[in-house]
Amino acid sequence: MYIIIQDYSDKKYVKDKQVARCGNAVPPPFAEALVRANLPELCQSKQIDA
Fold first, then answer.
1. What share of the chain is helix, strand, coil (3-state, %, to 5)?
2. Among 13, 15, 32, 35, which has the minimal tally of Cβ within 10 Å of its Cβ?
3. Which of 46, 43, 25 is nearest to 33 (CA)?
């Protein structure tokens, strides 16, 4: 969930402006799932040999 109460200069947003700013937001779990599905080679954990 995103909570957008104010901008970078502490100016408060009214409710409809808060909702408008959330419209294109991609939640981190969804972004991670997209990357894992489309770029699995970048998601492999690297094992360091001691």
1. 45, 5, 50
2. 15
3. 43
pLDDT (0 to 100) of residue 40 = 86
Q: Is this model's pTM higher than 0.90 or not?
A: no
Task: Enumerate residues 6+ apart whose C-beta is below 8 A from 4.
Answer: 13, 18, 21, 22
- Quote the distance between the C-alpha of residue 13 and its chain's center: 20
Residues β-bridged to residue 6: 12
* 46/9: higher pLDDT: 9
Helices (H), 2-48: 15-22, 28-38
> Is residue 37 pLDDT above 90, yes or no?
yes
